[in-house]
């Protein structure tokens, strides 16, 4: 237990007015995972009725809906609620970030790099992810370049997030469980999934330019 | 004049071992601008002998050569020389960053967000910019998506740079001249130029997908 009655590391982190967590890990994870599964299933089923969409496109729509809503609904409240850890009547989203801060206390400490990356993610990448759901469904010509752009933003954000943590001392977690489950585990989805989608979109774009070149050469 | 004999703001910034600037502003700017003009002219002239390259493509090659070399040669040394401000025999690049720090003391203070953005810029975007020179010259099918990717990286970096400065107190310059000339002026080139190039590449990519769609519909 650190100073000011908070559970975070490092113990000398100063958090005047900290209000202890009221929800358990299960009470926080279950609604988030439950809602996510519901969203993914709903997008999967609805996209199946659109006709002509490949399974890969439908899977991508599920991913973009999930990640877009996470950026807006989960990361958005963190960005715009600087006092979330001292609210007397915390809501679900305040509790999410008090729990996550066990894996990275820069959240509760309002570290500038962390708030900046979360701000860009919530305000720009969140809406852009939802636009990607629409772009895939309606086969827009900007579908691949949009998906590529959002993926690159997510990857750049993760790079800043991890490198800044390293430069700032790499001591923001309560213990190995929170380091691996929250700091590494939860964030890893925003590394390998955007990497795979970015490579796919890059290849599709190159292939289209290649086909155009061939057509012009004929 | 701040603490430890340094000229930076805020005055309470602690910089033990600081070695004062030995070059004047002119002695720092002239070689950088001179070399940049030389590089741009050289790329312009050589690209004119390649044949078939439009003036826009040649201009873009000049820009990518200039920005790539700036990322690698100017920003690279900053990233990998943490003690640049205390070196007894500073080289040109150490002096560049001691001068620039008058417009943003987070450089000399080794602020994590600033070093992170500069690191990504020097290590990833620098070589990628030089690759863009080659990609344009040899009309590679990945030319537009590569240029778009580097532009997005530069824009994301500028966003982090400015937003983190705002969140951290926005008090890192010696006075209005250094704020406008260094912090705003010098960085503005990495906002409006990447914005223009990114929009151009986005449009080219969409047009190519549109043309493919039309061809398939025929």
TrEMBL record, chains A, B:
It comes from the Eukaryota. InterPro entries: EBP, EXPERA. One of its GO terms (biological process) is sterol biosynthetic process. PROSITE patterns: EXPERA. The keyword Cytoplasm does not apply. The chain crosses the membrane at residues 28-47, 59-80, 112-136, 148-167, 179-199. Pfam families: EBP. GO terms for molecular function: C-8 sterol isomerase activity; cholestenol delta-isomerase activity; steroid Delta-isomerase activity. Residues 56-198 form the EXPERA domain. Keywords: Membrane, Transmembrane, Transmembrane helix. GO terms for cellular component: endoplasmic reticulum; membrane. It is a multi-pass membrane protein. Belongs to the EBP family. This is EXPERA domain-containing protein. It comes from Miscanthus lutarioriparius.
């Amino acid at each position: 237990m650190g100073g000011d009655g908070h559970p975070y590391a490092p113990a000398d982190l100063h958090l005047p007015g900290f209000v202890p967590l009221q929800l358990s890990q299960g009470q926080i994870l279950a609604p988030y995972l439950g809602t996510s599964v519901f969203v993914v299933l709903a997008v999967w089923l609805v996209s199946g009725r659109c006709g002509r969409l490949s399974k890969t496109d439908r899977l991508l729509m599920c991913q973009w809906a999930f990640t877009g809503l996470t950026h807006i609904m989960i990361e958005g409240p963190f960005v715009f609620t600087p006092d979330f850890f001292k609210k007397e009547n915390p809501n679900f989203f305040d509790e999410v970030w008090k729990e996550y801060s066990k894996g990275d206390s820069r959240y509760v400490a309002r570290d500038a790099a962390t708030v900046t990356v979360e701000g860009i993610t919530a305000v720009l990448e969140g809406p852009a992810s939802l636009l990607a759901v629409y772009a895939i469904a309606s086969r827009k010509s900007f579908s691949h370049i949009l998906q590529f752009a959002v993926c690159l933003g997510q990857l750049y954000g993760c790079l800043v997030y991890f490198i800044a943590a390293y430069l700032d001392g790499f001591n923001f977690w309560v213990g190995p469980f929170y380091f691996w489950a929250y700091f590494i585990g939860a964030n890893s989805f925003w590394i390998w999934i955007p990497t795979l989608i970015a490579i796919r979109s890059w290849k599709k774009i190159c292939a289209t330019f290649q086909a155009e070149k061939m057509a012009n050469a004929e």
